[in-house]
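sry for the spam today, last one i promise. struct tokens for design, 222 residues
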């Protein structure tokens, strides 16, 4: 491994040139520079670090628009717990191999609802990003949220892992933002794992990155 050059050292002096002596001392004593030296900096999402430090995110596009897809009106009441069932048999309406505990507990309630026709847009992640980055670029939580019926409709069209709008290969995830009965917004991952769909839910304030290449679905703005 090559040693740092004088030019690289000069870059540090340039970055910290207008910092006060007290600020520099705080940085040195925090040990954060040692962590940056020893850690895998290439794998760090800078906006995640900025959020932890109370800074605003950097302005950089996260999403690449791919297209839209129409979701028809429900013709009968949609009962989530009857639709999202672990079943990988040939007789299954949709082959589902795994439903996470949080998804099952929070979202699969007795609720019965109907939905009118809608249009979803879908985007590809251009880089790793946390939920705040994605939601902000979509236009906010109200604009980002969709529903279980829309997600299930898309899963049903690819119930055996066929090619289609949802990603079914390469380990990539399909992402939806869906509210529970208490109007808490959850980040839902829907991915195909060789023999069926896997579904998991996480709170949107988790700092886990979504990978570049994942897809995000949200309602098309009017």
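last one done:
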């Amino acid at each position: 491994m090559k040693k740092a050059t004088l030019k690289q050292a000069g870059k540090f002096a340039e970055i910290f040139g207008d910092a006060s002596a007290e600020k520099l001392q705080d940085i040195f004593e925090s040990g954060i520079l040692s962590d940056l030296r020893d850690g895998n900096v290439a794998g760090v999402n800078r906006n995640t670090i900025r959020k932890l430090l109370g800074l605003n995110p950097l302005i950089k596009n996260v999403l690449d628009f791919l297209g839209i897809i129409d979701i028809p009106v429900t013709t009968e009441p949609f009962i989530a717990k009857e639709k999202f069932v672990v079943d990988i048999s040939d007789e299954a309406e949709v082959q589902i191999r795994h439903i996470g505990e949080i998804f099952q507990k929070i979202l699969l309630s007795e609720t019965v609802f109907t939905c009118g026709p809608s249009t979803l847009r879908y985007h590809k992640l251009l880089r790793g990003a946390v939920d705040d980055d994605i939601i902000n670029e979509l236009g906010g939580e109200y604009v980002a949220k969709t529903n279980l019926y829309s997600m299930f409709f898309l899963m049903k069209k690819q119930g055996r892992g066929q090619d289609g709008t949802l990603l079914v290969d390469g380990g990539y995830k399909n992402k939806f933002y869906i509210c529970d009965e208490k109007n808490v917004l959850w980040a839902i991952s829907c991915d195909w794992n060789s023999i069926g769909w896997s579904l998991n839910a996480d709170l949107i304030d988790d700092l886990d990155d979504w990978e570049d290449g994942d897809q995000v679905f949200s309602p098309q703005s009017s």
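Residues 63-219 form one domain. ok im logging off now
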